[in-house]
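Forwarding these from the shared drive since the link keeps breaking.
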Amino acid sequence: MAAGGKSTRKVAIVTGASSGIGAAIAVALARAGCNLLVTYSGNKDGGEATALSCREQNVEAHAIACNIARDEDCRQAVADAVNRWGQLDILVNNAGTTRFADASDLEALEAADFEQIFAVNVTGCYQMTRAASAGLKRSGGAVVNISSHSGFSGIGSSIAYAASKGALNTLTLSLARSLAPEVRVNAVCPGFVDTNWMAPKLSGAELNAFKAKTAHIAPLQRIVSPEEVAEATLWFALGGSSITGQLLVVDGGTHLTTGAPL
């Protein structure tokens, strides 16, 4: 900690960092020299494991429970980071949720499903950004929203999920205007990523078949890794000083295909 209580390192919050993309982003930021506050919803062991992996990069890291659908949780998470390190430089809104539902069955979703998904994927990102905005303005920081190709294609785990990511994309544009000139706001929009996201819906054999199909369809002939999403996130978080309001698709080129490949 520097004189006056301000950290000599950049300070980042990564939401939903107990596994998968969020964990990869947190560790990548730690490797880049950032102190980390990682949040988790229900997976405490995963959150603590991510914080430990960050500390192994010789930075400070702490994990806390945070339901970003609750505004008080968002404000508490930001206060925790600022109280610990005296500043906030980066917010990565990664936490997200879904309900798997066949898009051809319009009876598969109810209003409550939309409310829950939007509460986390859209309102939660807004609340976290609002809570962090004062600290980010002081540091000239950056917000990176982890969205999805679903926000463009309408293809995904459910219609409600795709709609929420479309809303997150437009939220990114609105916040980029609102927080300028001090804060940059961008979004990374992955396609299918090699994580356990689909595990609740597909068996092991089905998941492997889906991965093989996805890799075959993609022009780059492979599946995106969490570390590749993290690489794009770090570019927005730590570089690109003149870039804001951008939505970057990271999907191995799958968006170049026609029809509904996934």
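-- next protein --
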Amino acid sequence: MHKILIADDHAIVRNGLSFLINQQANFQVVDQAADGNQIYMKVEQNPIDILVMDLSMPPGESGLITAKRIHEHFPDVKIVILSMHEEEEYIRQALQNGASAYILKSSPDSELLNALNKVITNETYLDANIRLSEESAEAINAGGANELDLKEYNNLSNREKEVLPLVALGYSNKEIAQQLFISVKTVEAHKANIMKKLKTKNRAELIQYAIHHHLIEL
């Protein structure tokens, strides 16, 4: 039985997907998440085989970044993107960041089920309704999708990557501490390290950096 985590910011979508997937013989939804930080914590706490996630779960970390973090730290977890975004930029970047499949929310249920059955055999799957330009198709097949320069971001610790979107979205130190179960002083230390590593002088510059590098969803 393949264990699945469903991630979407709408409870009705999560519940609908859970109902569909739990009807399949080889798959079981074992947990749900509503944002990027929840996804990471739940994957960390409970082993899963497949993550089915939306790309847009505002306000919070961009799903593209969440996918990248999950892939880097839990490479055995298969990532299936289920998104309303049909733009080639999103598809290319999602695959570059570690997704094994990309499905459109406008497609029939069968596309998601096809994707699940493909990724468990270590295959990549693109929604049959996705139409890519020849250039994008070649880039994806070659593993050469364009990627923003995230060298500075990649130098952040895992906890700093969790704190960053919350700071950029305007959460107070106390709110961040409560959400991540750490002390206010620890949050302040992380914020200082983030500013230093990203070479930003204030929150305005940090927000600009986060938006430019698609790190957050507003």
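Residues 39 and 45 are 10 Å apart (CA to CA). Residues 151-217 form a domain with the Arc Repressor Mutant, subunit A fold (CATH 1.10.10.10).

- D.
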